[in-house]
Amino acid sequence: MLQETAARLKRAEQHFLAREVGILAFNRRVLAQAEDRRVPMLERLRFLCIVSSNLDEFFEIRVAELKERLRLDGGGSTAETFKAVSEQAHAIVADQYRLLNEEIVPGLADEDVRFLLPPHWTREQRRWLHEYFLREMMPLLTPIGLDPAHPFPRVLNKSLNIAVQLEGRDAFGRSSGKAIVQAPRLLPRVMQLPGQLTGSKGYHFVLLTSVLQAFATALFQGMVAIGAYPFRVTRNSDLFLDEEEIKDLRSALAGELPQRHFGDTVRLEVAEGCPAEMEGFLLEQFNLGGQDLYRVDGPVNLARLMSVADIVDLPALKFRSFLPGVPRALEKHGDVFRAVSKGDILLHHPFQSFSPVIEFLEQAAEDPEVVAIKQTVYRTGTDSVIMKYLIDAAQRGKEVTVVVELLARFDEEANITWAAKLEEVGAHVVYGVVGYKTHAKMLLVVRREQGALKRYVHLSTGNYHPRTAKLYTDFGLLSANEEICDDVNEAFKQLTGLGRARRLNHLWVSPFTLHERVLQAIRHEAKNARADKPAHIIAKMNSLLEPKVIEALYAASQAGVRIDLIVRGVCALRPGIPGLSEHIRVRSVIGRFLEHSRIFYFHNDGAEDVYLSSADWMERNFFRRIEACFPVLDPRLKQRVIKEGLKAYLADNSQAWEMDSNGNYHRKKASGRVPRPAQEQLLALLAAR
Q: Which option is the CATH number for 328-503: 3.40.50.300, 3.30.1050.10, 3.30.870.10, 3.10.129.10?
C-alpha cells in the first residue's frame, strides 16, 4: 500500500503542476500587460490594479487554504508549495510597486495626471486638505490608544488602517506610545483636488493615506504623532456552512457573511518606512510570521487606484472605444422571438453586444403571449436590469422561476437581496441543490403561438451580468431548437424538483454526464489516431486541473492526437514531455478583455463537434457544480466559433504566451511577421466601430 501511494505521489509530481503556482504565473502575465509600453498608460494602471485585486482573492482563498493544510499536515509538499508561493508573491508585489513608481506615475505626470504627496503640497493645497480633514474625516474617525483598557481593535479584512507612534501624555497621564486609526470604508481612498488649487486643467489626486498621515496629530490632543504607518491585513474569506445541518440556506448564509471580515489573518501589508519595531508589533497582533509581511513602496491597496482610470477623461491614455456589433438577423427583424424562430443566433461578447439578451428578456416580460420564464443567476451585480425585468415579468402575472446561486463567491450579499425582491413579487425562487453550486447559464422562455406552446432559450459561457459582458469574452446562443429547448427544460426540472436525471438529447450536464462525455470524446480521438485517422482536439477554458481529464489527454497525445489547449489561467497539465505529451501545446492569451469562454472542439471523423460550456475542466465543475455544456448545431455558426473562438487565438502572435513542460510561459513575438492579436482582429471583424 505504501509503495502504491508513493508511486502515485511521484506520478502526480511528474504529471501535474501546482495550482497555486499556476495562479501566480497567470498574474505574472497580467502584470506583463501593465509593463507593456504599447498599452495606453491608464490601461497599464488598470492592469496593475487588476493584479492587486487578483492577489487579494488569492490570499483570501488559496493562501488561506494552504495555511490550513500546513497547520494540519505540518510540512512536506505543502510546505514546499507555500515557500514557492511566498517567494513568487513577494517578487510580484515588488515588481508592481517598482513599475508604479518608475514608469506609471511618471508617465501619467507627463500627461498632467498627478498623485500629490505631502512634501509637494502647496500652502493653499495643505490648507484646503486640512479643512477637508477636519470637516469630512475627523468626525468619522475613532482613534484607539493602545493600553490595558484598550486592547488592539478587530481589524476588518482588507480595510485601511494607520498605526500611529505618539509622544507625550494624554489628559489621563497615559503615554502608551501607540494608537490605531481605522479608516471607514465610506471615505474615498482617492480624492481629486479642485482645479483652482492646481492651476492646471489636468487631474491632480491625493490619497486618503496621505491626508491621514499628514494630520494624524490632530486626532491626539496635546500629543505629537511622530510616525503614521498605513497597513492592511488580508483574512481567510471562505465561508463555512455545514450543508447537512442547513434548513434555510439563505438565513444561514446571511448569518455567516459578517464573519468573513474577521477570518484568520493570512497577510500583512505595511507601507515602506514602517519601523521594524512596529512591523514586529503588528505581526504579533495578527499571529503572522515574517514571510507573511509585505512591505510596499506606495499605497497599501493598489486596487483602489482603479477609480483614477475611470475619473480621468483622456481618450489618448485609454484603449480606443468601440461600439459592439449586433447580428444581422436581429437588426433585420427587431423582434427577438421572430428572429430566433428563423434560426439559431450566436453572440460573441464583448465584440458583439449583450443588448439582444436584455431585449430577449425585456420582450419576454412585456409580451402578453409569454406565459413562463425560467433563469439561472450566478453573478448579475447589485444594479441589474436583468433582475428588474424578471421582477417586472412576475408583477405582470407570468410564471417566473429563478434559480439563484447564493454561494457565488463575493456576490452572496447581492444575490440574497435579489432573491428577497423576487419573492416579494411572487416569483418562484429556488437555490438549486444543496452541495452543488448552480453555475450553468440558462434562460428559458415559454410563449403561446398559434394555440400551442413554443419554447426559446439562451445559453451562455458567461454570466447574466451586463457590465462584465463588456469586459469578458463569452459566447451566447439564442435558439428555438426543440431538442435543445427540451434539454434545458429538463435541466430546470432537475434544479427545481425531485427525480432521476433523464437522458438528454444534446446537453452535457454536470454532475451527471459532462465528465464522462468529455472523457469519451477524448478517447474517441485517441482511437481514431491509433487507426491512422485524422484526430484533433482544441479546448479553450479558464482552468485545466481535473486529473482524469489530464491523464486522458496524455493518453491521447501518446496515441498521436494533435491537442491544442488555450488556457487563460491555471493549467496543471505539462505539455511537450517526450513519451507523455509531445503532441500537446498549451497557450494563454492575455489582452484587453478577460478571456472567459469555454469551447471544446473534437474532430470526430470530420464532423467537427463544437461545444460551448459554462464549465472549466476542474473537479469542482465536473462533480460539485451544476453546469451546462451545449453543442453548436448550425454548420455556419459552428464554423464561426472555430474561426473566432479557436483559430484566431491559435494564430495570435502578439498577446499569446506558450507554456513549457515546467509551467513557465514565454510570450509569442511577431518576429518580423504581421502581428495578429486575436482580440484586436475580432474587434475589427465584429464591432461596429
A: 3.30.870.10
